């Protein structure tokens, strides 16, 4: 690692010792000393420091800032994730960066993480902006984070420390593993009854944002996610062959959505009304560039007018799945329609498919006299 060169000046005859230390993965360092003892001592100190740094990651953790770790994660890991996953993790990273601003990795202890975890669970957040309704200023509604949401924040932080310890050798531990997670509620499955579906579609049709009706029809008939639908561009649609292409889903895969029935007719009508002047299918009413992602006020108004409670936009996806199950589709077909990679996500609809099977068997038994 270290080399020492004896140099004698031809003019003065003075002898000095030049030391050069090379460590893999680092720039070389050199220094000149008047005697061999100092030269060897300096070389030995650098070699010792290099060995300690390599063999004891906890020493690196004392010098590495948390902000430096998140920046490296952004540029080397996050960039390879699907867009939606990137957006969510960026939100999580921004939160943790704010909470641990100025701290080194060694200063981020299980106690510190547990304190922020509890703060997340107790605190509230808002969706939307302050708006005016009938000349009255209305503040956005405050929501409390669920245990599942808090655990997603912790999962991002845990992944960060896992890579830092296993791959980058910046620390010798993952402090997130030493704290408990929040209890998560059982998977919630809420879907529309036939009567609810009828009144909701009527309320959407009467909405101040006319495209809401088309958006909800698409969600009900395709089972696509909110982000997949709202980010659709006209170039992704083939109205002649009745299909839409999702270039990149939550799972990172491309997916084709069949367009059928009223949803297809509504899309054709929307295009004829001039929406095709924008590249986005669901453009912003203000004319600003980009899709109309923050349509929540119109959605909540439609729910209120239709008298439907405890229902989220994502539940339209459940409604699509429940209709497929009720008409006899298998769990494999439902998973394929919704774009799930794993059958575990569609087991919640198993009782619906069973109900259909029982009804079919009873009908067969009656007809055959069994």
Walkthrough of the structure:
The structure is a single chain. The protein has 370 residues and is mostly helical. The protein folds into 3 domains: 2-55; 63-178, Tyrosine recombinase, N-terminal domain (DNA polymerase, domain 1, Orthogonal Bundle); 194-366, hpI Integrase, Chain A. 48% of the residues lie in helices and 11% in strands. It has a 3-stranded antiparallel beta sheet, with helices on one face. Helix 4 (83-99) packs across helix 6 (147-166) and helix 7 runs antiparallel to helix 8.
Question: How do the strands and helices of this protein lay out in sequence?
Answer:
Layout: E1 2-8, E2 15-21, E3 29-33, H1 36-55, H2 57-63, H3 66-76, H4 83-99, H5 110-122, E4 124-126, E5 131-133, E6 136-138, E7 142-144, H6 147-166, H7 194-205, H8 211-222, H9 226-230, E8 237-238, E9 243-246, E10 255-258, H10 261-272, H11 296-306, H12 315-326, H13 331-338, H14 350-368
Antiparallel strand pairs: 1-2, 2-3, 4-7, 5-6, 8-9, 9-10
């Amino acid at each position: 690692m270290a080399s020492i060169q004896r140099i004698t000046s031809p003019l003065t005859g003075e002898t000095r010792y030049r030391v050069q230390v090379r460590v893999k993965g680092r720039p070389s360092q050199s220094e000149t000393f008047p005697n061999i003892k100092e030269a060897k001592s300096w070389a030995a100190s650098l070699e010792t420091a290099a060995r300690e740094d390599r063999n004891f990651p906890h020493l690196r953790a004392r010098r590495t800032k948390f902000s430096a770790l998140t920046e490296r994660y952004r540029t080397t890991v996050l960039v390879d994730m699907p867009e939606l996953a990137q957006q969510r993790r960026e939100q999580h990273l921004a939160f943790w960066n704010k909470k641990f601003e100025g701290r080194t990795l060694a200063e981020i202890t299980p106690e510190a993480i547990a304190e922020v975890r509890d703060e997340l669970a107790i605190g509230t957040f808002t969706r939307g902006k302050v708006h005016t309704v009938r000349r009255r200023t209305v503040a956005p509604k405050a929501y409390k984070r669920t245990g599942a949401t808090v655990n997603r924040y912790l999962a991002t932080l845990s992944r960060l420390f896992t890579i830092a310890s296993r791959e980058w050798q910046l620390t010798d531990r993952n402090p997130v593993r030493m704290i408990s997670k929040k209890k998560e509620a059982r998977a919630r499955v809420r879907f529309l009854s036939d009567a609810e579906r009828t009144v909701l579609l009527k309320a959407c049709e009467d909405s101040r944002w006319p495209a809401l009706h088309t958006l909800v029809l698409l969600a009900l008939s395709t089972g696509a996610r909110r982000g997949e639908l709202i980010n659709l561009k006209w170039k992704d649609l083939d109205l002649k062959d009745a299909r839409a292409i999702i270039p990149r889903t939550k799972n990172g895969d491309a997916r084709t959505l069949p367009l059928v029935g009223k949803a297809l007719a509504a899309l054709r009508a929307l295009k004829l009304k001039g929406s095709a002047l924008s590249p986005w299918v669901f453009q912003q009413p203000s004319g600003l560039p980009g899709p109309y992602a923050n349509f929540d006020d119109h959605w909540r108004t439609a729910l209120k007018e239709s008298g439907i409670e405890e229902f989220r936009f994502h539940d339209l996806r459940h409604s699509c799945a429940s209709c497929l199950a009720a008409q006899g589709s298998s769990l494999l077909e439902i998973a394929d329609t919704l774009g799930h990679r794993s059958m575990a996500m569609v087991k919640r609809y198993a009782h619906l498919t069973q109900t259909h099977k029982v009804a079919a068997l009873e009908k067969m038994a009656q007809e055959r006299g069994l």
